[in-house]
Amino acid sequence: MLSVLGRAAVSKVIAPVGRALVAAGLSPDVVTVFGTTASVAAAVTLFPSGHLFWGAIVIAAFVLFDLVDGAMARERGGGTRYGAVLDATCDRIADGAIFAGLAWWAVYHENSRSLLVATLICLVTSQVISYAKARAEASGLSAEGGLIERSDRLVIVLLGSGLTGLAGHFGIDWLEWAVYVAMWLLAVASVITVFQRLLQVRNAEGARDPLPKKSGIAESGEAPTT
Ligand SMILES: CCCCCCCC/C=C\CCCCCCCC(=O)OC[C@H](COP(=O)(O)O[C@@H]1[C@H](O)[C@H](OP(=O)(O)O)[C@@H](O)[C@H](O)[C@H]1O)OC(=O)CCCCCCC/C=C\CCCCCCCC
Ligand SMILES: Nc1ccn([C@@H]2O[C@H](COP(=O)(O)O)[C@@H](O)[C@H]2O)c(=O)n1
Ligand SMILES: [Mg+2]
Ligand SMILES: [Mg+2]
């Protein structure tokens, strides 16, 4: 959703940053790896130690590097296939770390099974949503969009965590529920997104045709049936 509404506007701000980093001699791959490493480090230290507000702020700053690497790739005349795989793989690692850090907080600070369940649903679906897209593309199909894409997921989890952290600092009782509301909303919307992407593939032309039998190892990597 945000990728449709926000990409053009954010690109205007990010493009000069990308240009400056390329001019400074940095490569997009370095920025991808740096942003991911820093996001993971923040997620697995600040969230588990109970610093939800600062965790959300610091992670929000570092996940923005995921926009900068693409801007740098475009500045250099276009991305590489390796860069695209590195970018997508690093996104999965960062998303996993953010939800794992929050799950740790849910267990050891909140002792909340409900928040743990919602967070684990988000952890799994965050990977599955993107995997569905990648696997569809490997089959020559497309499974994009849906209710929750990565930018939506990050804004919801970071806003929910940040607000609950803020409530803790200022003793605002009713706001402490923000992370619960955010994670359950995200869990439900993410499950819907998995089905939306599968339906998109199912309804694509030729998607349900039987795969041609091959004599050698099949393109899909499956063992041959004849
Ligand atoms: C008191 C409370 C405090 C709380 C503070 C936190 C609030 C949180 C607010 C903002 C946090 C920023 C989060 C947004 C970061 C977005 C980064 C991002 O991931 O963008 C994703 C997307 C590009 O994706 P990629 O192509 O790089 O990766 C693809 C993605 O992983 C796909 O996953 P899927 O979507 O399918 O699940 C994979 O399938 C695919 O393979 C992979 O390639 O970027 C966009 O979509 C662009 C639009 C993003 C719009 C973001 C809006 C953010 C809002 C505010 C940011 C302000 C910007 C200011 C810039 C200042 C810079 C100096
Ligand atoms: N290390 C990288 C990172 C990204 N790319 C290219 O950018 C695309 C992603 O752009 P975003 O603005 O959405 O981040 C990606 O698909 C690659 O084409 C790259 O080449 N190297
Ligand atoms: Mg990127
Ligand atoms: Mg990315």
From TrEMBL:
Binding-site positions, Mg(2+) 2: 66, 87, 91
Predominant cellular place of this UniProt entry's protein: membrane
Active site: 91
Note accompanying the cofactor annotation: Contains a di-nuclear catalytic Mg(2+) center.
Transmembrane segments: 21-46, 52-72, 153-172, 178-199
Catalytic activity: a CDP-1,2-diacyl-sn-glycerol + 1D-myo-inositol 3-phosphate = a 1,2-diacyl-sn-glycero-3-phospho-(1D-myo-inositol-3-phosphate) + CMP + H(+); 1,2-di-(9Z-octadecenoyl)-sn-glycero-3-cytidine-5'-diphosphate + 1D-myo-inositol 3-phosphate = 1,2-di-(9Z-octadecenoyl)-sn-glycero-3-phospho-(1D-myo-inositol-3-phosphate) + CMP + H(+)
Pathway assigned in UniProt: Lipid metabolism; Phospholipid metabolism; phosphatidylinositol phosphate biosynthesis
Region entry Disordered, spans: 207-226
Topological type in the membrane: Multi-pass membrane protein
Keywords annotated in UniProt: Cell membrane, Lipid biosynthesis, Lipid metabolism, Magnesium, Membrane, Metal-binding, Phospholipid biosynthesis, Phospholipid metabolism, Transferase, Transmembrane, Transmembrane helix
UniProt cofactor(s): Mg(2+)
Subcellular location per the Swiss-Prot or TrEMBL entry: Cell membrane
GO biological process: phospholipid biosynthetic process
Entry-linked InterPro entries: CDP-OH_P_trans, CDP-OH_PTrfase_TM_dom, CDP_ALCOHOL_P_TRANSF_CS, PIP_synthase_PgsA1
Binding-site positions, Mg(2+) 1: 66, 69, 87
Any one annotated GO CC term: plasma membrane
Record-stated family: Belongs to the CDP-alcohol phosphatidyltransferase class-I family.
Matches recorded under HAMAP family: PIP_synthase
Subunit details: Homodimer.
Entry function: Catalyzes the conjugation of the 1'-hydroxyl group of D-myo-inositol-3-phosphate (also named L-myo-inositol-1-phosphate) with a lipid tail of cytidine diphosphate diacylglycerol (CDP-DAG), forming phosphatidylinositol phosphate (PIP) and CMP. PIP is a precursor of phosphatidylinositol (PI) which is an essential lipid required for cell wall formation.
Record protein name field: Phosphatidylinositol phosphate synthase
Organism: Rhodococcus maanshanensis
